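Please, why this fold?
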Amino acid sequence: MSNEVSSSDNVLDGASFLQRIIELNLSDPRNPERIVYPLYVIATVVLLARLSGYENSHEQVLFWKKHVKELQQLIYGLGDEVASEQTIRRVISIIDSNELVKFLTDYFVTHRDNSDKPIGSIALQDREIVAADGQNIRGTRQSKNGNDERKHGGYDVVSLYSSTYGLTLSQTIVDKKNHEAEAILCMLKKVILRNTILTWDSLNTRPGTVSAVVDVNADCVVGLKSNQSTLEEDVRTAFEFVDNGKYKHEVLSATRVLDEHGRIETKQIDILEMKHAVRTELRKKWADVHSVIRVRTVRHFKSSDVTLQDEDRYFISSIVPDGLDEKFAETMLDIILQRWGIEARHWVIDVVFRQDALPLRNKDYITNSTACTKLACNVLSYIRDNVPYYQGKPWSFKSLQIVAQDAEVGFMFLKAFFTQDMSQIENDERFIGLFYKQPEPTGNDVPDDLENNGFQSSIDDDTPLGKFARTRKKIKAKK
């Protein structure tokens, strides 16, 4: 009995802690005399619902109704009434988006160890990699004028994602794909990026964005394609000289062979100094670029015994090539490959959190709703990274969403993330069997022992996550 009381006290302490940080970081623009549901109540329920896989305001109301008795024990002053969908949408829409994104950003800072260290004091292989990329929300696409054939392409969420820590730093909403560069410039002013290395695709490679990164005491390794045709032509020509044995200056190279997914993939990176590879007028235009890079990939498919022709990708970087570092080229290849972490995160947000399918229209609501999704994804990422793996594989996000459908567990996850302290979870009896002694789920499987641990009853059949869990159970029963 004493353990139960202690556990309850810990959860209540976590709930009050969450209430305090929401009140300190988010202001409520509503008339105080007309407020029925305080901002911290709405924000808390929305965060808990997003952690649990409840996607939109309709499902968040269902979550609230289902867990109202449980939430009353955790949220001070919560009554029996449940807010309507319209109320949740309106409150989320009127929150100051700058405050919410700052809230997302500030609580990430505690993860980062190198942002306050002197420039140049961190080894290249130890620097944090931050990827910038846009993600289109297809559900926001619409016709502009009734039956007009011209379509609105939908909003893009441009994010800064730490590939090193697996968490989203910040985000900005834009209404056109070619506005991503401006969004990146905007976020550079909001996030501490000192000592980091930024990466992005070739669409946003411009002299201004490269210079802006250098101005905030960071570096970049970014893609280069035909949108900068003159520079790309010079870079291609320089590497043709390398291939023909006519290049007279130093070339830093490394090769890596990957044998996985039924194919053997060989990647070779070659790095040249900008001052030897490009004409003078381009060096003046791209004054902050010091190296040009080519990554050549050859793939051999085992089943068909077919080898594809060379695939070359080109990059430029503000990092000065270091010929004295034997692993410089290999480290640069690691940096380039880490950029794809943001693509994997976008897949999770689209497939697991189903952001891509939400038919959103109001830009303020889109901004704040997607920020809540990123925050929920960050919380589950933190839990996922700090519980034991099973056979070298982590828990799936879907599995953690099912576990978080217990409101008390959701509070514990949130507190662990914001305090960066897993001790409460490690010492709680319900997690000892689930995370630390019993076999954990692998890949995208739902845990086999959810029913034994009391979480099976918390899965709502009305949600896509609930249908997923029931389908998995039926498949296993047939087998």
Observations:
- The two ends are 41 Å apart (CA to CA).
- Confidence is low (pLDDT under 50) at residues 1-8, 145-150, 448-457, 474-479.
